[in-house]
């Protein structure tokens, strides 16, 4: 007689948000029983009731409530943004409780802060892993894939084309990060880069698009995964938008540094931005390209196709939970550093290409 393994239980914080709910639904579809957490029972109850899940209320500014919410659970999936404001309290709670920490951020300061806790995480035998959604699983895995083909590579370029409308959480994170400007990594160090500059054409697996440098999370993660010292991350934009941003960014940056303007825009986003509906998620596709180059001319490039970004995030987040529960690791890690370049290929709907011929 065989006994059935109990359904995995772990904490999903921010479960009432747009992406948090998608993760909860995917987790249940995969046979998990996550415990839902956040500050508001009113917001959590509809999700919990629909999925038959437990709720534990907790606030990020109340360490005792976080400790109570974590009791008896091995892992937290943190999905409450903007992560630049929310990740540190949850990381500290996880380190104190001996629970693994995962999140779905794309914010460079959050990645850098997470890596800053590496020594303590190793000492406590806890995993800290930021970016287990569309930010940055596809790009991190493709970066490792091309880097492994070019030992000694010194240049890494990554480009994404994610055709989808933003959720409120994504939009608020972008508003908070936009005043910080662009970034590139040069000789292993993050440097400022003027937003709207450096636009060029890039071939993705479906078609060619205009791309320009943006401060994508791989400037933090791909550096740790590949050790390539010079990294530029690009995103696809309409050519007209790239030109407009180049001239309008100084004004926009100054405006977003004014607290009243920023807070007003955050409230507008919260009220009006909802994220793509199920039909858009199921129909959408996202595209990634990466190239590693060495000083002697050796190079490798590859292309990746994935489901729409928010759908991919739900799929990838739950697969990351499963991979980590199956083989716990210690320290602050990247997705591809922990799970390998092929981790993304285990997520349904993903396809990697070495050539477009």
Number of helical stretches of at least 4 residues = 14
Average pLDDT rating: 90
Helix content: 40-55%
Question: Which word captures the global form?
Answer: globular
Distance between the termini: 53 Å
The amount of beta strand, in percent, is 15-25%
Q: What is the chain-wise order of helices and strands?
A: EHEHEHEHEHHEHEHEEEEHEHHHEEHEHE
Poorly predicted regions are: none
Rg computed from alpha carbons, rounded to a whole number of angstroms: 20 Å
- Order of strands across the main sheet: 3-2-1-4-5-6-15
For the biggest sheet, the summary is: 7 strands, parallel
Secondary-structure content class: alpha/beta
DSSP strand tally: 16
Give an account of the 3D structure:
The chain is an alpha/beta fold. The protein is built from 14 helices and 16 strands. A seven-stranded parallel beta sheet has the order 3-2-1-4-5-6-15, with helices on both faces. The protein has a seven-stranded mixed beta sheet with strand order 10-11-12-7-13-14-16. Strand 8 and strand 9 form a beta hairpin. Helix 1 (18-29) crosses helix 13 and helix 4 (83-97) runs parallel beside helix 5. The longest helix is centred in the C-terminal third of the chain and has 18 residues, at 239-256. The radius of gyration is 20 Å and the shape is globular. It starts with 10 loop residues before the first strand and ends with a strand.
């Amino acid at each position: 007689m065989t006994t059935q393994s109990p359904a995995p239980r772990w904490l999903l914080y921010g479960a009432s948000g747009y992406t948090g709910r998608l993760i909860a639904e995917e987790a249940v579809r995969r046979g998990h029983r996550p415990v839902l957490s956040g500050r508001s029972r009113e917001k959590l109850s509809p999700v919990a009731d629909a999925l038959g899940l437990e709720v534990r209320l907790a606030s990020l500014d109340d360490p005792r409530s976080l400790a109570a919410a974590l009791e008896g659970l091995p892992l937290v999936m943190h999905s409450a943004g903007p992560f630049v404001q929310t990740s540190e309290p949850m990381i500290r709670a996880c380190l104190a409780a001996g629970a693994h920490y995962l999140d779905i951020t794309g914010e460079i300061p959050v990645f850098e802060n997470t890596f800053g806790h590496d020594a303590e995480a190793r000492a406590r035998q806890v995993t800290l892993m930021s970016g287990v959604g569309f930010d940055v699983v596809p790009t991190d895995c493709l970066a490792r894939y091309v880097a492994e083909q070019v030992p000694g590579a010194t240049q890494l370029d990554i480009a994404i084309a994610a055709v989808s409308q933003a959720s409120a959480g994504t939009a608020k994170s972008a508003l908070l990060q936009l005043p910080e400007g662009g970034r590139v990594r040069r000789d292993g160090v993050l440097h400022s880069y003027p937003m709207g500059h450096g636009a060029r054409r890039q071939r993705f697996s479906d078609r060619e698009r205009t791309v320009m440098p943006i401060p994508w999370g791989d400037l933090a993660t791909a550096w740790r995964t590949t050790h390539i010292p010079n990294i530029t991350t690009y995103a696809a934009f309409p050519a007209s938008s790239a030109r407009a941003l180049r001239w309008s960014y100084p004004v926009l940056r100054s405006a977003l540094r004014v607290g009243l303007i920023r807070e007003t825009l955050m409230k507008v986003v919260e009220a009006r931005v909802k994220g793509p509906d199920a039909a858009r998620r199921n129909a959408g596709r996202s595209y990634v390209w990466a190239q590693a180059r060495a000083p002697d001319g050796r190079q490798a490039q590859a292309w990746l196709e994935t489901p729409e970004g928010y759908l991919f995030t739900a799929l990838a987040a739950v697969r990351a939970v499963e991979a980590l529960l199956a083989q716990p690791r210690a320290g602050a890690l990247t997705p591809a550093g922990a799970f390998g370049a092929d981790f993304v290929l285990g997520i349904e709907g993903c396809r990697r290409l070495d050539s477009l011929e």
